[in-house]
Design brief:
The strands form three sheets. Strands 6-5-4-3-7 form a five-stranded antiparallel beta sheet. The protein has a four-stranded antiparallel beta sheet with strand order 9-10-8-11, covered by helices on one side. A two-stranded antiparallel sheet has the order 1-2. It folds into four domains: 3-72, Winged helix-like DNA-binding domain superfamily/Winged helix DNA-binding domain (Arc Repressor Mutant, subunit A, Orthogonal Bundle), CATH 1.10.10.10; 77-123, no CATH class; 139-229, SH3 type barrels, CATH 2.30.30; 242-321, Alpha-Beta Plaits, CATH 3.30.70. The longest helix has 20 residues, at 3-22. The N and C termini lie far apart (59 Å). The protein contains twelve helices and eleven strands. The protein has helices at residues 3-22, 32-38, 42-55, 77-83, 102-106, 109-116, 120-123, 139-153, 217-221, 224-229, 291-296, 307-321; strands at 59-64, 67-72, 157-163, 167-181, 184-190, 196-200, 204-210, 242-248, 268-272, 278-284, 301-305. The protein is an alpha+beta fold.
Length: 322
């Protein structure tokens, strides 16, 4: 095989491994699925993992039954936000190499040095269509984002004017987290009624610092588990989850097979039918959390249960048709 093909093969494997590590997977160089996916030997996969470990300080090895497993214990928040993008690719990592890039300036020094080692030829392998900071086209939005970063870092309050359908004012909003989800930036706040809300940053019209003291860290701590498991900006906090069973037609079944990347964290494979269709389940806290996803697959996804979700789905379709 020509040398260039071998190089390309290694680059793809390295970045896929980085993606898996950033997603929280523990990787063994003896993993038969990965060995088959990359078409490489155990020793080659182990060498790739060691290369990643040497480059990034937050990759460690854990020994179990005489086998080393590689895992990530610390990662840049920006990298983690990127990896959560379901349909993105690693291409925009290369955009961070530009000196004027906001994301690049925020990376740790060792990460910058590692990215700078990527050759120009390797960069040309990838195409990127979006990255987390592209929506900040105006100086005003950039300033709001920077102000929110300070507020989140210091557990501070802000008054926020927010315009979606109509202007809303959030007084003394506790700024909890900056969240990149569904290809958009949000600020997670707790409002005056102690309700958690996600506000899309591009819809924020004004922000003002209030109070000279910070809110207690315990406010953030009560949402720790929620922030680990929420699916999108429409996931409701403190609401009991409902499970829906869905059927993917044979036409799209390949996207819902057991080993395919999930569209939602709660997605579970149930089984494959004789006709090739696949049953799977999702959890949701309100119909809006998953209905847009289901609608994208019309007519190849069918709601099996619950009936209440099917009724809501049919109501939306009637509104669209009449």
């Amino acid at each position: 095989m020509p040398k260039t093909n071998q190089t390309d093969k290694k680059v793809v494997a390295i970045f896929k491994l980085m993606e898996y590590l950033l997603e929280g997977r523990e990787i063994s160089p003896k993993d038969p699925v990965l060995l088959d996916e990359f078409g490489i030997s155990y020793k080659t996969l182990e060498r790739y993992l060691k290369d990643i470990e040497m480059t990034y300080g937050h990759i460690i090895t854990v020994k179990r039954s005489k086998t080393n497993y590689y895992k990530m214990v610390k990662a840049s928040d920006i990298l983690m936000n990127f990896i959560k993008l379901k349909d993105s690719n690693i291409g925009f990592l290369f955009d961070w190499l530009k000196d004027e890039s906001i994301a690049y300036k925020e990376l740790e020094e060792d990460t910058k040095k590692a990215l700078q080692k990527i050759s120009v030829k390797d960069k040309e392998m990838f195409i990127f269509k979006s990255y987390p900071f592209e929506e900040f086209s105006s100086e005003g939005i950039k300033e709001i984002f920077d102000e929110l970063k300070i507020a989140v870092k210091n557990n501070e309050y802000r008054d926020i004017e927010y315009l979606y359908d109509e202007l809303e004012r959030y007084k003394d909003a506790k700024c909890l987290k900056l969240v990149f989800v569904d290809n958009n930036w949000y600020i997670a706040i707790e409002d005056q009624n102690s309700k958690l809300k996600f506000l899309r940053i591009s819809f924020i019209k004004n922000i003002k610092k209030v109070r000279d003291y910070s809110f207690q860290k315990s406010i953030n701590e009560k949402y720790i588990e929620f922030f680990k498991t929420f699916q999108n900006s429409l996931t409701l906090y403190g609401v009991e989850k409902i499970t829906t069973r869905l059927l993917a037609s044979p036409k799209i079944a390949k996207y819902f097979q057991k080993d395919m990347k999930k569209f939602y964290p709660s997605q579970k494979y149930i089984g494959t039918n004789h006709d090739g269709s696949i049953e799977f389940s999702l959890e949701f806290t309100q119909p809006l959390e998953i209905l847009p996803f289901i609608k994208r697959w019309i007519p190849d996804i069918k709601i099996l249960s619950p009936k209440s979700l099917q009724d809501e789905f049919e109501k939306d379709l009637k509104k669209a048709l009449f």
